[in-house]
Amino acid sequence: MAFPATRLRRLRKTGVLRDLVREVELSPSDLVLPLFVQLGEGRTPVEAMPGVERMSISNTVAEAGEAHALGVPAVMLFGLPAEKDEQGSGAYDDEGVVQLAVRALKDAHPELVVITDVCLCSYTSHGHCGVVLDDGRVDNDLTLELLAKTAISHARAGADAVAPSDMMDGRVGALRSQLDAEGFTDLPIVAYSAKFASAFYGPFREAADSAPAFGDRKSYQMDPANADEAVREALLDVEEGADVVMVKPALAYLDVIRRVKEATRLPVAAYNVSGEYAMVKAAAAAGYVDERSLVLETLTAIRRAGADIVMTYHAKDVARWLSR
Ligand code: PBG
After folding, report:
1. Lowest CB count within 10 Å: 61, 117, 118, 145, which one?
2. CA distance 203 to 84
3. Helix, strand, coil shares, percent, the chain, to 5
4. Where are the alpha helices (DSSP H) in 50-124?
5. What are 148-181's pLDDT values in tens digits?
6. CA-proximal residue: ligand 1, atom 7 (nearest)
7. Contacts (Cβ under 8 Å, ≥6 apart) of 197
8. Which residue pairs from 88-91 have beta carbons closer than 8 angstroms and sit at least 24 positions apart in sequence?
9. How much is the mean pLDDT over the chain?
10. 204 Cα nearest atom in ligand 1
11. Is residue 14, in this structure, part of any structural domain at all?
């Protein structure tokens, strides 16, 4: 029945009514805070991401502890090694920066969920996510071996979940079978299933020092125009054993989040990436938008699109805002 019998404004009269009929909730318990951990002491600010810093292991432990105390259940670790080489060997070094940080984090905060990013780009001298051949191509199958070694090394250090972000074909299956062979049958894989070749990663590449030295990532990351293909990527990852599927970036890909959720019915994560964060920070600093309202609206929209989990650099602020 239409107007005047139907008046949708009846349920918008007060905050209590609006809360009662709210379809989607945003809670700190949905959030994952990404952290950049480096060897050595102190903190290095990331210029394009105000409030985000590369931190020593002890600072990372403190930062993660603060987030956890605010109700953020999980962090995701990116490592900056002391040295890089062609094969990205720092990624699968049992005494590497992420491995050391995982041990320190799990010692200090056993309840905190520690997810590790599994990729080679911040460990390779050329900055690509895999093994580069003489002709400049990134070799898929050689890379799988190194990714699996990395995941196993993270698992041995005590990671609660591994998150492969390289976009090689078959990496979820390779990780699953090799983790299982090593006895890590219960370790979840959070697959970056639909990861697009995006300009929104710009600030991250400064933070993780992972910009490719030549070319771009378009031969492995997805074309932003393709949503059917994103669903295929996600379904393949499910077949290979993914426990959570991720869409990345988030804001420009809300339709993909929805479609991946409907196609997989798995827990879906969305990565509210560095460029999305930088845009909000820049506009807020200029006084053009209200940061708090903008962030809460954005993250609620990502949840509404179908994401169960949101990776976001705003996690601590959001937890503070929501607890008031
Ligand atoms: C590395 C990786 C990237 C991000 C997460 N893992 C960057 C890239 O692919 O170049 C981006 C995260 C962000 O922008 O916040 N494979």
Report:
1. 145
2. 20
3. 45, 20, 35
4. 57-69, 97-108
5. 999 999 999 999 999 999 999 999 999 999 999 9
6. 201
7. 216, 217, 218, 221, 222, 223, 224
8. 88/120, 88/121, 88/123, 88/124, 88/146, 89/123, 90/123, 91/118, 91/119, 91/120, 91/123, 91/146, 91/149, 91/150, 91/153
9. 97
10. 14
11. no
Which of 204, 205, 222, 302 for mutating ligand 1's site (highest number of atoms within 8 Å of CB)? 204
| 288: CB partners within 8 A, 6+ apart | none
279 assigned to some structural domain? yes
pTM for the structure as a whole: 0.97
Q: How many CA atoms lie within 13 A of 204 on its CB side?
A: 24
Residue 16 is assigned to a structural domain of this protein: no
In the predicted model, what is the mean pLDDT of residues 218-233? 97
pLDDT in tens, 85-139: 999 999 999 999 999 999 999 999 999 999 999 999 999 999 999 999 999 999 9
- Tens of pLDDT, residue by residue over 27-84, are 999 999 999 999 999 899 999 999 999 999 999 999 999 999 999 999 999 999 999 9
| pLDDT single digits (tens) 252-288 | 999 999 999 999 999 999 999 999 999 999 999 999 9
Q: How many A from CA of 210 to the centre of ligand 1?
A: 8
Residue 270's nearest CA partner among 229, 238, 298 is 298
Whether pLDDT at 1 is above 90: no
Q: Any idea what DSSP says for residue 184?
A: -
Residue 1 lies in a domain: no
Mutate to test the pocket of ligand 1, among 193, 201, 277, 313 (most ligand atoms within 8 A of CB): 201
Active site (catalytic) residues: 195, 248
Ligand 1 pocket (Cβ < 6 Å) reads 117, 119, 121, 129, 165-166, 201, 204-205, 210, 217, 273-274
* CA distance to 48, 99, 100, 108, 314, per residue, from 276 (Å): 11, 28, 30, 31, 10
Which residue segment(s) compose the domain that 263 sits in? 22-323
| Domains in the chain, number | 1
